[in-house]
Amino acid sequence: MIDSSVSCPVPTEQQPVNEYEELKSAWLFRDCAGNWRNYLTRITWIYGLSWLVSGPVSAGSFPPHKYIWQFLLSGAAGASLGSVLILIRLYLGWSYIRDRLSSPVIFYEESGWYDGQTWTKPEEILTRDRLIVAYQVQPILRRLQLTFASLVVLYIAGTIVWQIF
């Protein structure tokens, strides 16, 4: 049980646990914290929307009626760039929260950039925050890392197929 009498000078919106809750409910980030189906659906939608840009560019370079494989592969590579950019944003956001929760010392700003302070977390708050990292944030980061690894495998497979055709 966390002692509610512990005085925390950190503004409410800058407290790591509140930053975590806010990120967890944010539009782009909430599907990472949910089940695999919602997460993969969101990534697939992003990939599909990226095809709206990469498809015409790919068709301009490789007319589909002449170079179907090159068109498909270059379009897929271009579309995955949109997914990669979103995944990088997700990873950076969640790793920032992981670092803030794991850190025993929190940097915060009282009223502006010119008056930054630090606060050392009491042991019970540090323990709570590290449990959140271990059971909530790390699985999300592993999911994102697995997605990155899958994209690398697909890039390699696409490169091999490109060489064949």
Automatic annotation (TrEMBL):
* Membrane-spanning residues: 44-62, 68-92, 146-164
Instruction: Tell me the superkingdom of the source.
Output: Bacteria
Coiled coil location: none
- Keywords, comma-separated and alphabetical: Membrane, Transmembrane, Transmembrane helix
The keyword Nucleotide-binding is annotated on this UniProt entry: no
Looking up PANTHER family in the UniProt record yields: PROTEIN CONSERVED IN THE GREEN LINEAGE AND DIATOMS 27, CHLOROPLASTIC (PTHR34214:SF3), PTHR34214
Instruction: Write down what this protein is called.
Output: DUF1230 domain-containing protein
The organism's lineage is: Bacteria, Bacillati, Cyanobacteriota, Cyanophyceae, Nostocales
